[in-house]
Amino acid sequence: LRSSRAPSSALTFVIVGGGIAGVTCAEQIASQFTSDEVYLLTASPLVKTVTNFKQVSKTLEEFDIEEQPSSVLEEKYPNLKVVQSAVKLLRAKEHLLQTENGQTFHYRKLCICSGARPKLLTQDNPHVLGIRDTDSAQEFQKRLSKAKRIVVIGNGGIALELVYEVEGCEVIWAIKDKAIGNTFFDAGAAQFLIPSLGADKKDRSLPCKRARYATDKTGAGHSGASGELGSALGPDWHEGIELRGAVQVWLWPAYVQLTNKKIYGCDFVVSATGVVPNTDPFLNGNNFKLAEDHGLRVDDHMRTSEQDVYAAGDVCTAGWEPSALWQQMRLWTQARQMGWYAARCMAADVQEEAIELDFCFELFSHITKFFNYKVVLLGKFNAQGLGQDHELLVRCTKGQEYVKVVLTGGRMVGAVLIGETDLEETFENLILNQMDLSRYGEELLNPNIDIEDYFD
Ligand code: FAD
């Protein structure tokens, strides 16, 4: 085994994963500890970098994502080395890692950002696909071009985008909930969005402010060392990929039976039923506390239960007592925030400084796009964890906007804003300052009142 050991005077930081969490963490550490070595070990040949970062309001942020060759990072940070090889073993007590290409790395501080992979309905079935990375999206596109009918299973963001984007192919969408998109929406919002499914998509070029995903045009290799380890695609994963099926008579290669007893033949099944954190190579022989969703449990300093091992992004599960207005969701924004905060925690620990949980974990906030509508989600947007103890106010203009606020005890705790509502900043403030809004009642959503002026 070749060994990469840092001189004893220098700290060695090792970060695993070239997705948004790992790259953000590595960049932050490399820029702060310029005379120390920083290693980024990743299974995929391209790394994800955040560009055009914009803080839209106190907690809402927008940015673009670019897949770039690792040399771009190395040029920017001379003390950062990117090693393209998957980690196959971690011995946490000895502070060492081994990669598939036979290298051993000794670390003082390690941050695991290995992401998550699709939870597949059945494993090793050639007719069941999961979409995770550029490779699997291309495989999907190839299969779709010959398909007459596909079955999409799941009700989260990926399934929502898929059923909207696929054309020229019949889509059977199997969901177990009463309304579509229940990870993000309630039945009212779902109802608002449903007409878009059958609508003409000619307006697609409308400008839209949201994270845009761009793949490297150089054609640099795609597959990770072990095939399944690419970075999660994130927003706009279908951009530039024509999702159009073949219209011809076909003998079904696969059949699915739903719980309503109906059986459908299809060319293939897309399993979009959530993700499983990529923890496998790190667990054997170590003593990690795992959360119920199998993520590496981290405390409010992003520390796992193994000394000097931190974790961020999709691979980890927040194990701290969360703010009443925040919840973890395995999303792009949170991967960036966690990677950045984990780096700051690693630095604070090294420098023996105190650090407080970052403000971004105070309020859940997310900007995205569904069915070509801008979507902003704030706080307990679906009344998560509130039971019956809440009230909803809704304003809806068909084809234009859907505004929902969640109130409890007269205070706003969450909101869903679909369309160009321009309400995000005001609502964010009302949620953060927990002002008693009882006396405003339904006036709060009166379209004739300029709510921004009202609360100024
Ligand atoms: P990843 O981006 O998955 O990166 C993990 C990295 O770890 C990869 O580089 C991988 O190669 C590497 N790795 C894995 N195992 C090893 C190992 N053993 N050794 C070394 N390296 C390893 N989020 C949104 O906010 N909005 C969206 O619209 C959205 N759409 C999505 C659509 C799709 C199809 C998918 C799959 C996800 C989507 N997400 C979306 C989720 C978002 O992409 C993820 O939350 C985010 O990318 C997680 O970042 P990460 O850095 O934690 O992990």
From TrEMBL:
Residue ranges constituting the FAD/NAD(P)-binding domain according to the UniProt record: 13-165, 256-339
Coiled-coil spans in chain: none
Signal peptide: 1-26
SUPFAM superfamilies named in the record: FAD/NAD(P)-binding domain
Keywords: FAD, Flavoprotein, Oxidoreductase, Signal
Membrane-spanning segments: none
Known function: Probable FAD-dependent oxidoreductase; involved in the cellular oxidative stress response. Required for normal sarcomere structure and muscle fiber integrity.
Record family assignment: Belongs to the class-I pyridine nucleotide-disulfide oxidoreductase family. PYROXD1 subfamily.
Protein name per UniProt: Pyridine nucleotide-disulfide oxidoreductase domain-containing protein 1
